[in-house]
Amino acid sequence: MKRMLLGLLLATSMLTAPALADTPANTLVMAKAIDDIVTMDPAEIYELSNSEIAVNVYDRLMGLEIGDMTKLVPKMAESYSVSDDGKVFTFKLKPNLKFHSGNPVTAEDVAFSFQRVILLNLTPAYLFQALGWNAENVKDMVKAVDEHTVQLTVSEKYAPTYILNLMSTVTSSVVDKKEAMAHEKDGDLGHDWLKTNSAGSGAYKMRSWKANESVVLEANPDFRLGAPKIERVIVRHVPEGSTQRLLIEKGDIDIARNLSPDQIKGIEGNSDLVVEQFPKATVYYLGLSQKVEPLKNPKVQEALRWLIDYQGMADSFLKGQFIVHQAFWPAGFYASLEDNPYKFDPAKAKALLAEAGYPNGFDISLDTGNTQPFTGIAQSIQSTFAEGGVKVTINAAEVKQVLTKYRARQHDMIYMYWGPDYLDPNANADSFANNPDNSDNSASKPLAWRNSWDIPEISAETKAALQENDVEKRKQMYLDLQSKLQKSGPFLNMFQESEQTVLRKNVKGFFSGPNADLVFFYDVTK
Questions:
Q1: Secondary-structure class of domain 53-193 per CATH
Q2: Per-residue pLDDT tens digits for 347-357
Q3: Backbone angles phi, psi at 344, to 5 degrees
Q4: Helix (H) or strand (E) holding 241
Q5: Could you state, in order of their start, the residue ranges of all structural domains in the chain?
Q6: What is the pTM of this model?
Q7: CA 194 – CA 408 distance, rounded (Å)
Q8: What is the domain class of 281-499 according to CATH?
């Protein structure tokens, strides 16, 4: 207990005291913009920064490990089997797994974790609802067979890789049932408590989260892969890249995550620092609400595609950190469409706007984050849209505020990112190209729903691709979907991220995979 209190005091002092020359040898201090964090409950997490925390705090049945981002492997599961009809998946747990509380990990914990996602019905619930699970049947379709065996039943036959990939998502994080229920309030399955606390079995335990300030993690010596090599991780909210640069140059932090290309260039020649490049699967797009009259017009949608200076941005203030990518599934993976047919052409855009009945353009608002790269991209869009007569008012705010507005379908246009929940094209198709219920009270709220895009035929195509077992035929179906959405609809896909991370030269073993929930701290040394 004394050691724990000492660690917390040290973490707090590092956040408030004057800068020191070096960070402690047993502590990793990272600076990052974490204003997108709205919750730490894995049944609600759907942002990038808290996904990074979740993968280090919670464990899952399946997943990817450092070293091979192409091979899905059992994590908490020891083995799994699939019934002949493809509808029943049985997972055996590895023995002797423990939660941070000291409670043993059981099949009942796994079943509870999946059930509460459905019962709470928060943003990521649609991932499991797609399996035919609902509040009435989930306790029958997800159940513990014995202490170490959990059985999942799905309503239809899908490609097994899809189900296994779902078991690797943040939403499938296994929660300590006893710990969560000890903090239950008004039947919330521990949700209110888990928004700011943790009950996992991952490499680290979350000691504190202070919104727009910091997250403090402490190593779990009983982690499945062995005790992490660094005892403590502190993630400091530092939204300005210029401040991050000063901190890492002075040695007050170990890792800086949000330096701009100009700031990266400015540290060239500093022998104390190393820049590492991590290709990401995160795509950035402009979303157009289909509640807004001009934005519903297909010719307006096409015109706006020709009013974006994609390459100009990628070659200037985004250089080295973003590549032009105009499809909803990122480049470099199975079924990626890597064709980029659009470029900045205001003359073509103006002609299309005139055909649509808007020869003088129109006024529109754009919601986005108030940090880079959002602000720079929004300003570029504002400038180039003006050349077509489209007058853009930028509403910049903290990302979590923007997301709250987005999820309530209260925007005109939004510039935002999307990272796949798992590395199969359905992960993005299921949100960009699927909207089974466009009503305001829909249980399923993917990106197409957020933009009020009612697409029964395209939704049917997405489901057909999901159920196709022939690998090559399935690939072509996803390529066709991407091509269709590339040419029409409310999503103007613009970029794919390539993260540049700056580390002090003594930091080794930091790994940032293609997804936010594949950023691992447990192998870091100093």
A1: alpha beta
A2: 999 999 999 99
A3: -70, 115
A4: helix 241-250
A5: 53-193, 281-499
A6: 0.81
A7: 23
A8: alpha beta
